Amino acid sequence: MTPARLAILGIAVSAGAVAAYLASGSDPAAPPPVQQAAPAIRTVEVLVSAVEIPLGGTVGAKELKWQTWPADGAGQGFITRQAQPTGVEDFTGSIARASMLPGEPVRREKLIKSDTTGVLSALLPAGSRAIAITIDNRGANTAGGFILPNDRVDVIRIYRDDAASKVQGTDVVVSETLLRNIRVLAIGQNIQERNGEKVVVGETATLELDPRQVETVTLAQRQGQLSLSLRSLRDISKTDEQIVKPEDVNLTIVRYGTSSQR
């Protein structure tokens, strides 16, 4: 082999050795990322409705069950198995004060234990009274028959003004809104809508009133006729001043020959 070739071969070997040395001193490859396990979710067993429970329905053991629930999502009003292990037995025989959907957590305020009283008295809040007024089951004085239990209504009194009738020589009939935003407890003996029924069934409407309102309605029934005006769902939480416009309630009343606006 010639000296030139030997020189070239020596240079190549030297370059390879330098490259190998440099490669051996490079940083090691990064290790694959370590996958951390997701934190365990704390759970509790919450008492829920196993089936749909209607308003006024009697709750049995088959209507209730324990269901696993995230502990962070269990509200203060929830009934847990840890706090009340006999929850199913404790609430068996209760009456539902509000309708409940399947899987809905049971709250104490929605169920009431009633061994001796009737359903309607169990549904009444403390301090309230229930009174029934006569209605036309054809819907002539009940918003065309579309008032259902738990709707809100205004009670309108229609009566003959004797004083104005004497002055005018003819019957003068006056109407006035007696009560506003009153809850309907029942229509006839129905305390809830059944089978998608959308019409009034029965000849009475049972209203939730306070003791003073009971006296007012009882007297008004003796003096004239009562009608119910259905309120919008959007108006339930509003005050009457927000709903009634002055120009909508002006009424001319004639008493002893003198006109007045109401």
Automatic annotation (TrEMBL):
Leader sequence segment: 1-19
Keyword Signal: yes
Domain spans labelled SAF: 44-112
Top-rank taxon: Bacteria
Keyword annotations from UniProtKB, A to Z: Signal
Entries under NCBIfam families matching the protein: pilus_cpaB
Protein's name according to its UniProt entry: Flp pilus assembly protein CpaB
Organism per entry: Alsobacter sp. KACC 23698
Lineage: Bacteria, Pseudomonadati, Pseudomonadota, Alphaproteobacteria, Hyphomicrobiales
Primary gene name: cpaB
